[in-house]
Amino acid sequence: xxxxxxxxxxxxxxxxxxxxxxxxxxxxxxxxxxxxxxxxxxxxxxxxxxxxxxxxxxxxxxxxxxxxx
Length: 69
Hints:
This protein is mostly beta strands.
C-alpha cells in the first residue's frame, strides 16, 4: 500500500451511527472489504468503487454485515 494511494472519507457506522474517518486504499481498485466499527465493534461491509479511467475514488457504500451491496 502506498501512502499516496490512501484517501479518507468521513462515514457513519450503519449500526450505531458513530461518525469516523475511513481510510481507503484506492490502489486496489474496485473491491469489497470489512472493517469493525471503532465504537460498537460491529462488522461493517464496504463496497469501494474506483474509476478505472481516472483512478479516483468514486464511491464508498457501507452496510451491515448481512446487507447485499
